[in-house]
Specification:
Structural class: alpha/beta
CATH architecture of the largest domain: Alpha-Beta Complex
Order of helices and strands: HHHHHEHEHEEHHEHH
Pfam family, one: Glyco_transf_29
GO molecular function: beta-galactoside (CMP) alpha-2,3-sialyltransferase activity
Protein name: CMP-N-acetylneuraminate-beta-galactosamide- alpha-2,3-sialyltransferase 1-like
Distance between the termini: 72 Å
Number of domains: 2
Family: Belongs to the glycosyltransferase 29 family.
Strand order of the largest sheet: 1-2-3-4-5
Subcellular location: Golgi apparatus membrane
Largest sheet: 5 strands, parallel
CATH superfamily of the largest domain: Glycosyl transferase family 29
Number of helices: 11
């Protein structure tokens, strides 16, 4: 009889303990869900580029800030690398003076939408070859949040195939074209004289007296940093070739500007 009572008491004690444990576990789960920080995704897309491929994520972790600014200039070592891709003999001090002049004209802070758990930045990169002729991809390209176009790729008359939306337009002096007031100019300087060309193109006197004055919104000008060029050359291309092409630089830059 005593053994039976002990057994019943043991069963009741176990049941009570299970109930208490289950309630405590439920309370803990609620606390973790609502009060502790969660491991949020870097973006709101179904597949964020930086999470989808660990190899890609590691490459991007080494990336410097991609755009020049007064607070994000380059080192002397980076200048020496950049100088090798040009014939200009002017020194680092002259380069810095030129950059100072650049930011007397253009915004000192580069503004673009960065990755966020609340956003999904979809992106299309459109080159300047004729591969899209007859594709009818225009509506699909324009459907993206961000459309990046490179150099002299035309849109007028080809909207059905390439679309007409342009968020960022990549160019350098030899491929310049006038842009809409809402389009960001992403300028790729491969030498000091490219920066000087940019300054000349946006001075009031040049715009009034020469047809070559560049027409675009000065508040939306972004200048790629030589440090980003060097990073792409070293990390992505493993120093193959003298320097990265405009197309390849744009492709890597798009990974910085876009989530999908």
């Amino acid at each position: 009889m005593l053994q039976k009572k002990l057994f019943v008491s043991f069963v009741l004690l176990c049941a009570t303990a299970i109930g208490v444990f289950s309630r405590a576990s439920w309370i803990l789960n609620v606390y973790q869900d609502f009060f502790l920080p969660q491991n949020e995704s870097v973006c709101a897309c179904n597949k964020c580029l930086m999470e989808y491929d660990p190899w890609l994520s590691e490459l991007m972790k080494e990336s410097p800030e991609p755009f020049l600014s007064p607070t994000n200039n380059i080192s002397d070592d980076t200048f020496k690398w950049w100088k090798r891709i040009q014939t200009d003999r002017r020194n680092f001090a002259f380069y810095n003076k030129t950059v100072d002049k650049v930011f007397q004209i253009f915004p000192t802070k580069v503004s673009f939408t960065r990755s966020s758990p609340d956003l999904c930045r979809t992106c299309a990169v459109v080159g300047n070859s004729g591969n899209l002729n007859g594709s009818h991809y225009g509506p699909l390209i324009d459907f993206h949040d961000i459309v990046i176009r490179i150099n002299l790729g035309p849109t007028k008359g080809f909207e059905r195939d390439v679309g007409n939306k342009t968020t960022y337009h990549v160019m350098y002096p030899r491929s310049f074209k006038h842009l809409e007031n809402t389009t960001h100019l992403v300028f790729f300087p491969f030498k000091i004289s490219d920066l000087e060309w940019l300054i000349r193109s946006f001075t009031q006197r040049q715009k009034e007296t020469a047809k070559s004055g560049l027409k675009t919104n000065t508040n939306l000008v972004m200048i790629l940093s030589p440090a980003f060029m060097k990073y792409v050359h070293y990390v992505w291309l493993k120093k193959h070739g003298r320097y990265p092409s405009t197309g390849f630089l744009t492709l890597v830059l798009s990974l910085y500007l876009c989530d999908e």
